[in-house]
Amino acid sequence: MTEATTIDQILKAQRLGFAVFDREHTLLDSNFKYSDFRQASDLARGKVGLWQVFPELIGYEQTIAELLAGARKPLVLEKLNQLDRTDRLQYYNLRVLALAGGTRSPARLLCLAEDVTEQTALEQEARQQRYEVQLLQSQLLNQSQFLSGALLGQSAKIQAVREFVGKVAQYNTSVLLQGESGTGKSLVARLIHRARHEGARPFVEINCAAIPETLLESELFGHEKGAFTNALASKKGLLEEADNGTLFLDEIGELPLSLQAKLLTFLETRRFRRVGSTREQSVDVRVVVATNKDLKKAIAAGEFREDLYYRINVVALTLPPIRELDDDIIQLAEHFISILQIDMKKAVHGLTAEAKRKLLSHSWPGNVRELRNIIERAMIFTTEPRITAAELWLPDTGVQDDQASDALHIPAGGLSLEELEKKYLIASLRQTGGNQSRSAELLAMSLDTFRYRLKKHGISIQAIH
Amino acid sequence: MSAASEAIIYSKKICMLGTFGVGKTSLVRRFVHRLFDDTYLSTIGVQIYKKEIADLNSAKGRPLGVNLVIWDLANIESLTPATRTHFNGASAAIVVFDLTRPETFDLKQIHLRTFLEVNPGAQVIFVGNKTDLMAEGPDEKALVAIAGEYDAHHFLTSAKDGSNVDEMFQALAANVIS
Ligand SMILES: Nc1nc2c(ncn2[C@@H]2O[C@H](COP(=O)(O)OP(=O)(O)OP(=O)(O)O)[C@@H](O)[C@H]2O)c(=O)[nH]1
Ligand SMILES: [Mg+2]
Questions:
Q1: What is the ipTM of this complex?
Q2: pTM higher than 0.80 for the full model?
Q3: Which CATH architecture has domain A134-318?
Q4: Residue A371 Cα, ligand 1 centroid: separation in angstroms?
Q5: In the sheet that A89-99 helps form, which strands lie side by side, from edge to edge?
Q6: Most buried among A47, A134, A160, B42, using CB within 10 Å?
Q7: Which of A148, A192, A198 to mutate to test the interface with B (most CBs of B within 10 A)?
Q8: Which protein residues are within 6 Å of ligand 1, measured from CB?
């Protein structure tokens, strides 16, 4: 086999692998013992076949028969991948050609592997960047749109929530969601919507506490041109926007009594009138309402209509606060880490054991929202691959870590905690344009607590605006 | 016939088709190596995996094995003679969609038609992957519709938690030798 040994020399220099097979596909010669192209030891003993050496040629039997018959051009398989001895990804092109036979020497098959790792690695890098960005973008879109992962966990309570979502999705009845601030009522409303409707059905959300009473009616039900001083054109209300989909009324406990009556009429008749219109219209809307208030107490105080309460309380669910979810807190925290990691482009891979214990011992008054904020802050500051206990700044737990409190510096003149609280209350209102429920969210407290503290400090919202 | 050519009878080439990032590589790695990795390394060209599935029941009731030669192809950005050559001699295609990205359900991008021109009579199965990301339950409608059009089987899988991955490959193996 003189020509093969010559080729051998050349191929070795070019970092190529080669192998020659006879008509029966038996290996005659190769340079594998000089190159790390294929494990030479595998091929050392006995009769070795083409398909053992090159499983990538399975499926090309016909082509190979034609090649040996001299009836076609060489077969080229581009950019095949394999791991080299050091587990590094290697790319090669495989070229299969016939060495023509003479009268006394039958045709043979030559397989040549050409290492194309260098140029292909460049191509890979370029692709990787493009694809990664696109993939992250659509993942983020998915997460913010459907938030699917956020109803995570194995605890019985979370499973009950998932079951509830699955069941109510089958019917179009109104649903009441109760639960402390931050327990994910809005998320559950979205999931109920998604579970019933696929495709582009509207999900319309409004926070009844966020909109001044005078605007709320036209916001919800729409108005006709000239219905009131500023009604320069007629406008659809959210109820109409939500036609064929879902209307989510958050903080229903804050809905003024007059509108409670109008909402009740709608729920009973499915009909309503725009402000300033005499024409009744009907829409097909699933209404989901939520509150963190005790509506029974509100009824007793004359702030909530009993008949509306019974109308919306037919299908109701109380969302568990996360301190009741046991180990699910860890899963939720890890979920947030994985989302934020994409968002912040920062590789953080989880929590240390001590950090996990710390999360489990906190009482989580602000629930999921508080958890997310705590994780987000830790993600910003951490320099470790895993978030440590010291990086979790948990207020009011009694297990405050020393490092975090060390970091706070108290001015020599001292400070008043009362004053500090007042400042934060005002700052939150400024930041949210006077929106009380968003301010309460920012400070991880319930709306009731927030209002109570405003009153305590004598802060007037009008004065801040 | 030599021993080498006898093995061919039981070897079947399978191509993984689907847009980038849907989880082709992850499904194959889960099935062959029982591994999953969250980090994404986009495939260029093709990586070939082998996995033997033993004890499939043949039509004659005799146990039978099949050696799956799985071609984990890259996303095909443009169809060239070289990418067409990759399709040659395949017995089946596993078409993978990402359930979280509706835009991946586009058969034109995937070149399934060309695949079937090159391999008339090849089996096709459709896979909706990443069920683990769908807490509210995966939406099967689009998948069922596409599978219906091709009179093909469909599976909902997660390469991450492993659900339905073995079942999917097993079913395919049974199909390609029947
Ligand atoms: N959560 C989840 N992630 C998955 C699943 N399957 C794949 N992934 C992730 O999705 C990304 C892309 O997966 P790959 O398997 O590389 O996708 P591919 O289809 O081979 O992509 P290309 O090679 O570029 O065509 C990776 O980050 C995987 O970790 C799954 O079932 N669940
Ligand atoms: Mg891949």
A1: 0.89
A2: no
A3: 3-Layer(aba) Sandwich (3.40)
A4: 28
A5: A27-30, A16-21, A108-115, A89-99, A75-83, B46-57, B63-73, B11-17, B92-98, B123-129, B153-157
A6: B42
A7: A148
A8: A 131; B 18, 20-26, 37-38, 40, 42-43, 74-75, 129-130, 132-133, 158-160
